[in-house]
Amino acid sequence: MDISALLEEIKASPYVESDIAVPHCGVVRFNSKLKAGDKLSGPRGQWKELLGTLLADIERERCLKNIYAREKGELVSINYELAGKFVEAGAEIMHVRHFMSRNEVLQTLLRHSLFLFNAPEKAKYYFVPNIDVKVKNTGAQSVSVHDGMELFIISRMKRETTLRYTGPDGVIYAVYFDAEHHVAPGQPLIGVCPPAQLGQIEDVFMRVQTEWPED
Amino acid sequence: MDISENKVLIANRGEIAIRIVQACRKLGVGFVCVYTAEDARSGHVRLAEELGGSACLYRIASYHDANEILSVADTSGATAIHPGYGFFAEDYRFARRVTQRERGIIFIGPSWRVIRELGDKINTKRLARSLGVPTVPGSDRPIYAELEAEELARSLFDFQTQQGIKNPLVLVKASAGGGGMGIEEVHDLDLFRSVYRRVRNYAARQFKDEGVLIEQRIRDFNHLEVQILADRNARNIVHFGTRNCSIQSTGLQKRLEVAPGFDPASVVYNFDADRLLEDIIRHSLALARKVSYDNVGTWEWIVTREGQPYLMEVNTRIQVENGVSAAISRIKGREPSDGTDLIAEQIRTGLGDPLGYTQEDISFHSMGIEYRIIAENPDNGFAPWVGRIEKFSWNPAPWLHMHTHVPTDAPYDIPTEFDPNLALGIVWGKDIAEVKQRGLEFLESLRLEGSTAKGEPLQSNLAFLKKKTLDILKF
Amino acid sequence: MDDKKFHLLTERYNYMHDVLSGKNNENLRLLSSRLEELGRRLPLLSPAERSDALTTLEDLFNFVENKIEAELTPMDKVRIVRHPQRVCLRDILENVYDNYTEIGGMGEHSLDPAILIARAYITRHRGKHTVNQSVMVIGHEKGHGEEIRNGGSASPWGNAKALHYMKVAEIENIPIHAYVFTPGSYPVEDSPGAAQQIAKNLYEMSNIRVPVLAVISEGGSGGAEAIALADRRLMFSHGYYSVISPEGAAAIEGNVKNGGASSPALVEKCAEQLRLTAEENLRMGYVDGILQEPNLGVRCYHYDFMHHLRQEILRVTDEIVLEVRGIEPFRSMARRSRRKKTRVGLNMDTVHLRWELSSSAQERLVERRHKKFRKLSAKARVDPRNTWSLLKTRLSDFWWDFSSYIRYDLFRRRQQKISNFFGEIQSETTFFFKNQTAPVRRLFGRLLPRFGAKSSGEAEKQLTALSDWSETKSRRGNWAYISNKAMEDRAVVCPNAATHGCLDMWAPDLYGEFAGVCTHCGHHFPMEYQWYLYNIFDKGSIREFNAEIEAADPLGYEGFGVKLEKAKAATGLKSSCLTFEASINNIKLVVAMLVATFRGGSVGAAEGEKFILASERASKKRLPFLAYTHGTAGIRIQEGVNGVIQMPRCTIAVRRYIDAGGLYLVLYDTSSYAGPVASFLGCSPYQFAIRSSNVGFAGPGVIQETTGTVLAPNYHSVYKALARGHIQGIWDRREVSFNLHQAMLTMGGRNLYYK
Q: Do B454 and A182 touch (CB under 8 A)?
């Protein structure tokens, strides 16, 4: 894998464009101080205790909720025709552009350089209990996996079965699922780094660390 | 108010949502459907769009979120909510909120007090006993004293021995529990005390209530149901006969239902089956009158091999298998093809229409079977199969109703987060022989094919259903 | 020599300048110009001239210092106390004691450099005899501003070390001299947490069986209390002893958020209002004597003061000992003669009195200490109980004392012996007979139907017919009291929705049936105290007492009187502490409740007194005692030391109750911080918390300011408190009644009076 080329590619377009969608139905009102082109900040602080930029609020059943920016970026456009209207769940109220953070670039590069173990079917996935404890306590990178190891629990239709890992031996470097969401078939569950490749991965870290500006 | 001025919000999905839309159309009542992002291509969405256009469709975040349902109800001007089954169907808090909020609307189902009263198993048992309705022998209130518990357990063992039961069993369960937690069996009185203490301590820790229920554990039984319908204020209460739901998966999920509950004309039972069916109907109606039951509901019974019925619980909702009862009954003699529609009856009476007929106007003519067609592997503990359905078809027949949200003209990915029913096939015939023969004919004609992402072929319970068709109504 | 003198004068000038904090003072300007001028002239002068000039200037300095001394404001004194030149504990050890060894600490190599412990002795002569009298010296070391000393802010483990050596002194039967030089405790929640440890210190110190003398220079609230629960408390004349720093009070007053600063004028005013000086504290009775410092406060070269200090600590330590030692008539005689002699200027170095105490003297010592604190702060509350009602209370108290003595001590002890004896005999005989008759019984059992067995019809009826049941227990969700918040038709968001995926709940469900608990994640929304009042205790069992004791404004703190009246009008309460008797499942108990809605549940003199009266009532009536904290922000700052003193007062009351055999339970709810947690609440062996509540010493803002770290959002969560051993369990609100009952059954045991 050519890290330099990939990195150059990302540098060429370091933005991710996305829509801000309302989490549920309700009457939406935009933050009147915002306009297209404004800078947005995501949650900040050591514990992410400071909220991001206030984008809009939505009222449903006399309960008002604020919608904040989740990431640092720039406001591209606002769907003003929805202002003050009842919108359905998932309605897109804004379009934003987000400058990739160092960590995101790293994750993108890692996706290209790690061995990815993919979900065989659409379901929710968990680690088997003993691995789960280890991941929660000491982080995924403390877990080494080997071919044929019982690693996951697949949960679907209220039933659970175990899933064995197949692939090269190594350390779990990235986890791409959580307990709340379904994973579509073919999407990666974990990224594994074989020992032989460690040097290469460290190189990726170094490159990003030095070549990508701090957030 | 004429009921046709109403607009019903259907707070459900899939097959039942489709049937409710159809019933609303039949009654000339407006409807509103909701759907989630995963269901954008589901059958009920397509039907709603076809019949009412996008104005009657709202995308919501979750079927479980009452706030979504109610905010859509307000925006769309709905005057009533039909919960279907599952989700909010037996949630008295939801029913209460729907009717008691400032913009109160109609909850199509029993009034919330009835749902709450019958949702409490201890309360239901006590109500039943107060009317002399048979219930499972044992306690009808939480037991807090060890001596009393022991005394009760002893009586239960003696009682079962007297009844000639070979291996008597006693069930000890936390009165505040539910869903199978904190339940243990005892087969020997000497072991009772330790089991009792274990359950009591578990209940104290888990539910902060030391109360324990002690009951006879009944193992050999058939599962019967009585279908009840009543109009608002319980002015008229009628029944639509019985069903036998004894054919179930290993996880005790129903797979095949037959109406009526027994067939003494062709099958030999250890007891007077006609009389038994009459008894459970009579008891069910008595309890319905007692609580002023005011919508559709199902009384669940278990019947032992000796013919002793026990009332288990009341389901205060429309059930999946309502169609099989509708198929065998006629109101004022109307043919089943366009005759009884329990969902329409539920909506009509729920909106305040009087019933308009009495028990004498309901007649029972035939026998029906409902098949639940599910992608699963009955040989492997009914493990669900997930993948894409590529072909789905059957031969239509005048003796068949097919309810499904799965498209027949396009591939369909089975969603993983909901009930696994793909389709309900209801067949009916004049007697058991005819209905069995038609059932097999229907199952033979059914084509259900598909594959997983890995290319493994679809698995279904069709073979299981065929096999079980031969044994229906045998105890 | 002259250079040195000049330098000294420059120092004195700088010091004055610091103390007055640049306040515009013409005297200071005069000194400055004169000093400058002399500095220029000095090299040109002859030695004699030099000396004269310096002496003249020195006189001027003395004159000005005298003048400034007379005009010192409380805030100036605070600055004096904080000045790096102020005398430190180490200076005292060097100059007051004759010899010492520091215990466990070499500079930064110390468990906590802010706490200094030393074994020291003072040599006294009597005729030809010399005697070395040992003491345990414990105190805060500010180290003249040394970084590692952290300004004398003791960490929890530093306080633990202090307590450890107090216990050592107890074993060695030597007095403790505690020197308080702290702006406050270092507010971290570690293992242990700050509050947790201070509470423990107070609890243990209330019963330390050796004389304790505390000397206060800088007495910052809870940090000071942690080592200052003493038989005698002396105070430096320029010291301060306060509930909060003037800056802290100003920040609260001026509603300053993180990073901001209040105006110097407001800080100055707060220092004035807090009544934190030695004179004020002596007047209010919170210290027993003042150690007069030289003008503008003692610095390390004031050797006269050191001598004075030595004389005073000897005199006072002797006094404590004399009060409790020997037989009563001789005791008072000795005290009287001593007083006469001290008045005529007795040199304490030349008298000798042994400081060891016999065990009966130790008991008297502890009892006197308890009584001393019990009497404090009586004027800081409104107690409208008239003589007649007080007399009635006395009488009923006496009756309870008498009857519980009869019932529990005299009678019970006898009865227990007798019943133990018979119990033994009975179990022996049953065992014997059981063995003997078993074969016979088995035989009969087979031949005959069981004796008393029911007929089959009856049994069947029992199993299938409706049983009698009056649903006495409130079934789930059927609450006796429903919050007003349950009357609104609206949805409510759970604060954990983002992380746990909780759906919005309908207010009538949430605040009604769900008792304010999120059904999905279990988050507890705060509920009003009435919810607990009417849903935990048996219906109609609540009997309030001492409702008439009223919170007051003892310091005349500006604007506080109005705020207090407002709080009283809004809540219908007279203080934040509600005391009552009630029952849970028919077990009677005494409850003291701190109501968060009344001035943040803060504790002042009235609350403290009510709490103490409640514990005494529980003790008299032999009932379990529950402190339910609906929420407390800490000690009420507007009451100054009148509030702080409730920490030792109430802790002593709790200690007495527990020592008498009572079961003391604490239940925290919403947020509980500072003084009360660091004393009478935090010292209970059985502390529980309602889910989603917070427990700690200082609020997040204060910690951020003092430690400079941003706290994790869950820093004060009760789960953390549970993990570090502060609390013993976390309860669901809906199960409080059950859990309290369970607690009384399982933790009460033999210690509990209720049976």
A: no
Q: How many residues does chain A have?
A: 215
Contacts of A63 in chain C (CB under 8 A): 490-493, 504
Distance from CA of A92 to the nearest CA of B (A): 13
Examine the domain organization and report whether A89 and A113 are in the same domain. no
Mention every residue, 6+ apart, whose C-beta is less than 8 A from residue C226. Answer: C154, C159, C162, C185, C197, C198, C201, C202, C678
ipTM: 0.90
* Chain B, nearest residue to A58 by Cα: B71
Within 114-173 of A, beta carbons closer than 8 Å to C belong to: none
Q: Does A210 touch chain C (CB under 8 A)?
A: no
Interchain CB contact of A29 with C (< 8 Å): no
Q: Which helix (H) or strand (E) holds A156?
A: strand A150-156
B60 vs A63: CB contact, 8 Å cut-off? Answer: no
Tokens representing residue C399 in the block: 């009756």
Q: Is there a contact between C465 and B62 if contact means CB atoms under 8 Å apart?
A: no
Architecture of the CATH domain B221-469: 2-Layer Sandwich (3.30)
Split into its structural domains, chain A has a count of 2
CB pair distance less than 8 Å for A62 and C491: yes
Question: Which residue range is the domain that position A185 belongs to?
Answer: 103-211
Task: Flag whether residue B218 sits within 8 Å of chain A, measured between CB atoms.
Answer: no
Identify from B57, B75, B252 which residue to disrupt to test chain A contact, counting A C-beta atoms within 10 A and taking the largest count. Answer: B75
Q: Is A157 helix (H, G, I), strand (E, B) or coil?
A: coil
From first to last of its 475 residues, what are the pLDDT tens digits of chain B?
A: 688 899 999 999 988 999 999 999 999 999 999 999 988 888 899 999 999 999 999 999 999 999 999 999 999 999 999 999 989 999 999 999 999 999 999 999 999 999 999 998 899 999 999 999 999 999 999 999 999 999 999 999 999 998 888 899 999 998 887 666 788 999 999 999 999 999 998 888 888 788 899 999 998 999 999 999 999 988 899 999 999 999 998 888 899 999 999 999 999 999 999 999 999 999 999 999 999 999 999 999 999 999 999 999 999 999 999 999 999 999 988 765 566 899 999 999 999 999 999 999 999 988 999 999 999 999 988 888 888 999 999 999 999 999 988 888 889 888 776 667 899 999 999 999 999 999 999 999 999 999 987 788 999 999 999 999 999 998 8
Architecture label for domain B3-108 = 3-Layer(aba) Sandwich (3.40)
Residues of B marked as catalytic: 317
Helix H, strand E, coil C: the string for B233-295 is HHCCEEEEEEEEEEEECCCCCEEEEEECCCCCCCCCCCCCHHHHHHHHHHHHHHHHHHCCCCC
Return the SS3 of C268: helix
- Does residue C50 sit in helix, strand or coil? helix
CATH superfamily, region C82-374: 2-enoyl-CoA Hydratase; Chain A, domain 1 (3.90.226.10)
Inside any domain, residue A3: no
| Partner residue opposite C503 with nearest CB, options B65, B97, B140 | B65
Classified as helix, coil or strand, C378 is helix
Chain A interface includes C489 (CB < 8 A)? yes
Which residue bears the tokens 């007279």? C574
CB contact under 8 A, B129 and C466: yes
Count how many pairs of residues, chain A against chain C, have C-beta atoms within 8 Å: 25
Nearest to B155 among C459, C489, C742 (CB): C459
Answer yes or no: do A140 and A194 share one domain: yes
C527-749 fold = 2-enoyl-CoA Hydratase; Chain A, domain 1 (3.90.226)
Give the CA-trace dihedral at A36, A37, A39, A42, to 10 degrees: 50
What kind of architecture, by CATH, is found in domain B137-216? 2-Layer Sandwich (3.30)
- Asked if B421 reaches chain A (Cβ–Cβ under 8 Å), the answer is no
Q: Roughly what angle, to the nearest 10 degrees, separates helices C246-253 and C74-82?
A: 130
